[in-house]
Amino acid sequence: MDLTQLSSLFYYLSALFGATLVALWLSLVFWTYRDIRSRSYDRLIQILAALVPAFLGPLGLVVYLVLRPPQTLEEVYERTLEEEALLSQIEDRIVCPGCSSRMQNGWQVCPKCLTRVRKPCLRCDRLLELNWQICPYCATPVPGARPEAAAP
Question: Which of 40, 51, 74, 118 sees the fewest Cβ atoms within 10 Å?
Answer without folding.
Answer: 74
